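Example S7 (structure tokens).
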């Protein structure tokens, strides 16, 4: 029995925590704060504290490494002085160093000492050096605006359904895929944000990384899921004609769900790390983001109308999408770091992809299938007039 547990333990450690076994698991020094944001020309005071004062004497001599390079801050900041902790320092084993920004970018400061083994995995200082404070504020502002635009983008559809007491025109495949997608995204965000274990797995994999989930991601995804569920409730109670979820969407949804269930079982039997499992959930969300608009666009085309499909939703989605891409560019300019855009094309590509689909919907609504009240203006387009007639009857 004990042997079995031991084997499972060793097995999972060998597979996923290889680096942890090699590294000492204890923090030796700490930086307070452990991450700072400054601009070029600005200085910041950081405390370096020795966490194991028992080992003194002898003196502990500390040198700093910058992005893994010893004693060379590569122009990002002014070189930090070496530190020596001596017994005379008394109880308070901390020293203040001044970090002065020189050049925009990201820098990881770690430490090294001949007397103690300092783990660069646990003890590090993250420094973001921005070009300008104004840009930093603008980045935050843009972030909040798109957060709100995306968050409220679900309401125009809900209000429209309520006003019409009907969901005719809203594609059920789109809604069903959205519910599955936001469920996955919520699970990803909530677990990564709340679970200390999974965060540790993340940091093991990305030693000096920043957790990719913030509180507003959690709030956004859970709120989006609730809004989609409310819309689904409307589909149950309001007039829906002959609309239903198509077989193709059912099959796609089932395949993705089975994939996640099987992965979860494998993960819960310890053959897959929880972090990898969560990434599977996020990949499913990505797949859904890429396909979810197709059925709605096709349905609008078939009906030659966008009646019942809220353009407010699309305009807000479009605003959010544009601003999220703008924010990526602002960040790249501010930190002179274009790798974040072009190095990981997923986020950027998805942003662009949604924007293109929104443009298609905007064209459908305002150009191709203009609301019926203006139909008399479009005398040149006789062919379309015939096809609109049956829709009129379903709406009345
Ligand atoms: C820190 O000490 C090392 C080794 O003695 C030396 O090479 C380096 O120049 C010193 N750095 C500073 C900033 O004094
Ligand atoms: C640091 O680690 C190495 C190998 O892991 C070991 O040989 C050395 O004695 C350690 N040094 C201290 C000061 O603990």
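Recovered sequence:
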């Amino acid at each position: 029995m004990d042997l079995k547990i031991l084997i499972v333990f060793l097995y999972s450690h060998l597979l996923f925590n290889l680096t942890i076994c090699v590294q000492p698991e204890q923090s030796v020094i700490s930086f307070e704060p452990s991450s700072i944001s400054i601009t070029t020309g600005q200085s910041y005071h950081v405390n370096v504290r020795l966490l194991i004062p028992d080992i003194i004497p002898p003196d502990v001599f500390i040198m700093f490494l910058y992005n893994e390079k010893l004693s060379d801050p590569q122009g990002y900041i002014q070189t930090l002085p070496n530190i020596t902790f001596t017994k005379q320092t008394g109880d308070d084993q901390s020293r203040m160093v001044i970090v002065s920004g020189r050049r925009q970018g990201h820098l990881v400061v770690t430490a090294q000492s001949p007397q103690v083994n300092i783990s660069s995995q646990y003890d590090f200082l993250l420094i973001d050096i921005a070009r300008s404070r104004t840009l930093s504020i603008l980045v935050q502002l843009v972030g909040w605006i798109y957060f709100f635009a995306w968050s409220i983008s679900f309401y125009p559809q809900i209000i429209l359904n309520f006003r019409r007491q009907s969901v005719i025109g809203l594609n059920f495949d789109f809604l069903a895929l959205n519910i599955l997608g936001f469920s996955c995204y919520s699970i990803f965000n909530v677990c990564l944000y709340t679970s200390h274990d999974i965060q540790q797995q993340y940091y093991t994999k990305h030693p000096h990384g920043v957790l990719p989930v913030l509180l507003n991601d959690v709030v956004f995804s859970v709120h989006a899921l609730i809004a989609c569920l409310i819309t689904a409730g409307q589909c149950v109670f309001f007039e829906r004609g002959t609309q239903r979820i198509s077989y193709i969407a059912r099959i796609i949804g089932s395949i993705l769900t089975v994939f996640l269930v099987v992965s979860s079982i494998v993960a819960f039997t310890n053959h897959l790390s929880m972090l990898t499992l969560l990434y599977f959930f996020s990949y499913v969300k990505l797949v859904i983001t890429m396909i979810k608009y197709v059925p709605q666009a096709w349905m609008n085309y078939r009906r030659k109308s966008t009646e019942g499909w809220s353009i407010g939703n699309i305009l807000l989605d479009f605003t959010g999408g544009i601003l999220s891409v703008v924010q990526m560019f602002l960040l790249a300019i501010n930190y002179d770091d274009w790798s974040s855009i072009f190095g990981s094309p997923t986020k950027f590509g998805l942003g662009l992809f949604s924007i293109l689909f929104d443009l298609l919907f905007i064209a459908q609504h305002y150009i191709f299938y203009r609301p019926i009240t203006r139909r008399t203006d479009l005398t040149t387009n006789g062919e379309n007039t015939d096809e609109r007639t049956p829709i009129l009857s379903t709406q009345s």
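Notes on this example. The chain is about 55% helix and 15% strand.
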